[in-house]
Amino acid sequence: MSGTFFASKTIFLMLGYGVFYVRLGINLGVEIKLKEREAKFMKQRKKIAILLVVTLVLQMMPLPVGSLARVLGVFSVSQAVTVSDKVGDIRWEVNGTALTLTGQGESVMNAYGKTSYYDSNGNSYPGSSAPWGKYSQEITSVTLTGVKNIGKFAFYSFSALESVSLSGVTSIGESAFEGCTKLNSVSGSDSITSFGAHAFDGCSNLSTISLKDNAVMGSYVFAGTGLTQVIWPSESETISEGAFQKCAQIKAIDIPAQVRTINNNSNFPHQ
User: Is the pLDDT of residue 226 over 50?
Assistant: First the structure.
């Protein structure tokens, strides 16, 4: 009897331990899976956090299209990029390396100022505070339609800009194209009646430009350009200050009979 009781007790204990170890194994398995899931979740959170930090940094450091592309590795500069927005009733669009601004016929552009941007290496370079200013190292052509004027510093220091179409524009603000060293073609300039000071200052590749007879010329308007010949507006009575400062390429200047005053600081070549 005692032997049977002992055997039964032994079997009972073995079953009890078996259940315990089975439960223990299940619990350990569940715990391991939970830890694996937790580790996976933490990795995902870490990736999201890194992406958020990168996004915030990029927003604080406006980069031109090409530089931003190189940082993110999304596309090369040669690939077409389209960015558009609206300022007042003027819509602007960057498509690849072309910038177009379209107004309503009498649209007036805002005045802007100088600012600085940063390339992918953290180096700063000057530019315009206009909303399209951040693309100044990429844009090679600018076309304006239905816009009455060009605001101050609108295209200041656009280092890649080569050509400009000014259809319908009647005035150019101060330093609008100053520092555009590659600019070599300006169409529609013969409809401009007012050129602000330093409008084309430093456009060293600009060799020719047409002027309207009654155009009013600001100081240093062509300083540092590559102009080879200038026909001054026939109705103008004054040659403005610094108009031809550092214009070493000029071979001839046609001064109309109407001119009564030649500023002592006009800086004629070889003066």
Answer: yes
Task: Name the nearest CA neighbour of 112 among 191, 52, 177.
Answer: 177
Instruction: Using the predicted structure, report yes or no on whether residue 8 has a pLDDT greater than 90.
Output: no
Say which residues have a Cβ less than 8 Å from residue 213's Cβ, sequence separation at least 6: 233, 234, 235
C-alpha 127, offset from chain centre: 8
- pLDDT tier, 20 (very low <50, low <70, confident <90, very high otherwise): very low
Residue type for position 230:
V
CATH classification code of 80-262: 3.80.10.10
Do 61 and 84 form a contact (C-beta atoms < 8 A)?
no
Q: Exposed/middle/buried for 44, CB within 10 Å: 0-12, 13-18, 19+?
A: exposed
- What's the pLDDT at 119? 87
Instruction: Please state the pTM of the whole predicted model.
Output: 0.70
Give the E-state strand segments of the chain in sequence order.
82-87, 90-95, 98-107, 114-118, 124-128, 141-147, 149-150, 163-165, 171-172, 185-187, 194-195, 216-217, 229-231, 238-239, 252-254, 261-262
Rounded Cα distance, 131 and 134, in Å = 7
173-199 pLDDT, tens digit per residue, is 999 999 999 999 999 999 999 999 999
B/e letters for 88-107, b = 16+ CB within 10 Å, e = fewer, are: eebbbbbebbebbbbbeeeb
Pseudo-torsion of CA 220, 201, 205, 154, nearest 10°?
-140
Lowest mean pLDDT among 41-45, 166-170, 245-249: 41-45
